[in-house]
Known about the structure:
The structure holds 2 protein chains of 2 kinds. Chain A is an alpha+beta fold. Chain A has 1 helix and 5 strands. Chain A has one domain (7-77): SH3 type barrels. Chain A starts with 6 loop residues before the first strand and ends with a helix. Chain B folds into 3 domains: 2-71 and 180-253, 3-Layer(aba) Sandwich (Rossmann fold), CATH 3.40.50.11750; 77-175 and 263-307, Rossmann fold (3-Layer(aba) Sandwich); 323-361, no CATH class. Chain B has helices at 2-7, 11-32, 43-51, 54-58, 77-87, 110-115, 128-135, 152-164, 179-189, 201-207, 213-219, 230-245, 265-274, 304-307, 322-326, 358-365; strands at 37-40, 63-66, 92-96, 119-122, 140-147, 170-176, 196-199, 222-225, 251-253, 275-282, 286-295. In chain B, the strands form 3 sheets. A 5-stranded parallel beta sheet of chain B has the order 2-1-7-8-9. In chain B, strands 4-3-5-6 form a 4-stranded parallel beta sheet, with helices on both faces. In chain B, helix 2 packs parallel to helix 12, helix 3 runs parallel beside helix 16 and helix 8 (152-164) packs across helix 13. Chain B starts with a helix and ends in a 5-residue tail after the last helix. The chains are: A alpha+beta, B alpha/beta. Chains A and B meet through strand 4, strand 5 and helix 1 of A and helix 1, helix 2, helix 3, helix 8 and helix 10 of B.
Amino acid sequence: MCVGVPAKVVKKMEYSAVVDVMGSQTTVGIIFVPEVELEDYVIVHAGQAMSIVDETYAKQSVEEWRKLINARNSEAVQ
Amino acid sequence: MLEILKQSNNPEICKPLVEAVIEKAIEFQQKFGRKPAFMEVCGSHTMALARTGVKQCLKDVVNLISGPGCPVCVTDQRSIDAMIALAEGENRIICTFGDMMRVPGSTRTLVDSKISGKDIRVLYSPVDAVKVAIENPDKEVIFLGVGFETTIPIMTLMVGEAEKQGITNFSIWMTTKLVEPVLRFLLDAGEVNLDGFLLPGHVSIVLGEDAYQYLVDDYHISGVIAGFETAELLSSIYKLLDLILSEKISIENNHPSVVTKTGNQVIHQWLEKYLTECDEAWRGIGVIPNSGLDLKTEYEQFNAKKRFSVVVGEPRKTKCRCGEVIRGLITPNECPLFGKACHPMNPVGPCMVSTEGSCSAYYHYMRESF
Lengths: 78, 370
Ligand code: SF4
């Protein structure tokens, strides 16, 4: 019930929004994320947006993985 | 954003991450003379770890134990029997998540009830149950409220909506579960030796990072909040190993793009308004005090347990060992029925039915690893 890829908000109404998940659109509730804006990505659970995805943190995670891999590679070279 | 998401399953990233985790795990083994043991609390993590192959890749170096985080699997048999009995009543529409449909009751399943003509509807978005009630004013509409902290808030939305619209034929059969009481139970019982927890990504959206501090303060054990993609899972296991090897005990948020320190405060307000703690019975465990949430007395008209009397007998005894699976005491393949009398087409226990169940995860993705 829990796993969901981030969904992009393409239309915002008062208590709901239309989101796009990899090309298919659906309407979800946004009562739990009142600050959501158009173009934001949200995590949806059972028809409700539960959290807005912070892209800066998402990018940082990818950078962290790359750093970890690079550190191992340079250790291997030494 | 989708580009970032792709990275989290990119083999160029995931393969070296697997190697990094294996190296760290070997370091752990050299230091402590045994494999590290981590529990993934969430059923969706169990499924993601099996589906992505992480469990299989690491099985020789890290013991990844499935925990009590699949909501259907932890629901005790009497409760399941009661929900199926509820569906047998006249003039009712039962609304539920799909996972509940094939869960074996002592004598039948909800699918059997539906085949025999009962009105049972699977909803993706539970709030639609209120619409069903509006469209069917002459029927009682009951939602089967099974879930953890991620799903419970949605039940409060349903009650809020029914209240706002003045609906009198809608109620919820609340059978909810909370993560903290069951983790405390497992740690207090000491039946399973753990070096750390992979903490549930989506439950943590609601709870926030700080809500796990009791693990550090009361049990001196670390936890890492993890997402569900391959690199997120691997980097979380790496972080857990790193914490232990550097002799640190803490809660790390490895899913900061969606989990904050204090959780979703709007959701907290909804929970506080409508719900109060209650004792809940867990499969294979029994009653854990204050381990669930129920509607406050002022919202009793929406509480199906107060509105409908359901009598069920002693649950039928089976050889199903789901109770031990969810406590992390055995792996699914240690159950003698696994893959023989019990398989997805003929599930004996809920762990084989649910999309988050350990037995189902093992059956679909890990049979060849034994
Ligand atoms: S394999 Fe089937 S019978 Fe055995 S514990 Fe799992 S669900 Fe129960």
